[in-house]
Specification:
With about 280 residues, the chain is mainly alpha-helical. Among the domains are: about 100 residues, Arc Repressor Mutant, subunit A; about 80 residues, no CATH class. Helices cover about 45% and strands about 5% of the residues. The chain has 11 helices and 3 strands, in the order H-H-E-H-H-E-E-H-H-H-H-H-H-H. The chain has a 3-stranded antiparallel beta sheet with strand order 1-3-2. Strand 2 and strand 3 form a beta hairpin. Helix 3 crosses helix 4. The longest helix is centred in the last third of the chain and has 21 residues. The N and C termini lie far apart (about 80 Å). About 20% of the residues are buried. This is Helix-turn-helix domain-containing protein. InterPro entries: WH-like_DNA-bd_sf, WH_DNA-bd_sf. It comes from Bradyrhizobium hipponense.
């Protein structure tokens, strides 16, 4: 019996399917640079074929200038491959746009259908007619390859000690060994969230060596403070916490800002009272 996929598993799968669609897309009106930008968007795509990366992120991933990214995003939208929608923070600050990939293939089937790759009559995915060589052939072949000794003893090759992996010079500061634990402990708690999916995405960011861990954690701290404050006022807003893997995949630490300190009426009155006294 198969395991029902979680929303995070679906998000990862949709990103892979979006990349497959982008790679196979072949149009006369699309340049190689446009396709490169589209592939970056597809890598960030979620369940609804939408991506939220900032233009600086697209620029870093594609190694194009901000101007070139902007120009090619507009071209992709002009020919109907993507649709972009602007977003703003509640404070009025500009957020990264939402890019909708216009995937024209039939809508994906339910994960349970797409994962059902084995035949009902052969639950282990093996056809009786294709189990390999027959027993007699297998035994005879095994006998002819028992080694060079006449008594059919094996000649084991000399084992070499495992080689140490080559060290790689990092562009960013080394991440702490417990970076997964630090991230998970700080991330706002969302019922049903997948720690495994989040850690896979986090490990990918660490391997790509383009993000300082301190920058990521600073953005996460702002996000956690904001969401925890909202949930404290209204517990039903817990449903608006993004899945941790989605938050990482969309590089949301880049859009998070420190909370704006609001001046209370009493503080405002006190400041203006002191000003009046000074005058």
């Amino acid at each position: 019996m198969g395991v029902k996929p979680t929303p995070n598993d679906m998000d990862i799968r949709m990103s892979i399917e979006a990349l497959d669609w982008a790679f196979k897309l072949n149009r006369d009106d699309m340049t190689s640079t446009m396709k490169l930008v589209l592939l970056v968007l597809a890598d960030f795509a979620g369940d609804e074929d939408e991506a939220y990366p900032r233009q600086t992120t697209i620029s870093a991933r594609s190694m194009l200038t901000r101007e070139a990214v902007n120009k090619n995003l507009k071209k992709l939208e002009d020919i109907g491959i993507i649709e972009s929608t602007g977003r703003t923070h509640p404070t009025g600050a500009t957020r990264s746009s939402v890019y909708k990939l216009m995937i024209d293939s039939p809508r994906r089937k339910d994960a349970r259908d797409t994962d059902k790759s084995v035949n009902e009559d052969h639950p282990h995915g093996v056809n009786d007619n294709h189990r390999g060589e027959n027993d007699n052939h297998t035994r005879s072949e095994a006998g002819s390859h028992r080694g060079e000794n006449g008594d059919h003893t094996f000649n084991h090759p000399k084992e070499e000690p495992p080689k140490e992996p080559p060290t790689k010079n990092r562009r960013t500061a080394p991440w702490p060994t417990d970076f997964r634990k630090q991230f998970w402990n700080l991330y706002p708690k969302k019922p049903g969230d997948s720690r495994k999916a989040a850690w896979l995405k986090l490990e990918k960011v660490e391997r790509e060596d383009e993000v300082e861990f301190t920058d990521l954690m600073t953005g996460l701290r702002y996000y956690a403070e904001r969401m925890n404050a909202e949930i404290k006022q209204d517990p039903t807003r817990v449903k608006y916490i993004a899945a941790a893997s989605v938050w990482i995949n969309q590089a949301r630490w880049e859009t998070e800002r420190p909370p704006v300190k609001r001046t209370s009426v009493n503080e405002w009155a006190g400041v203006n009272g002191r000003r009046a006294t000074a005058i």
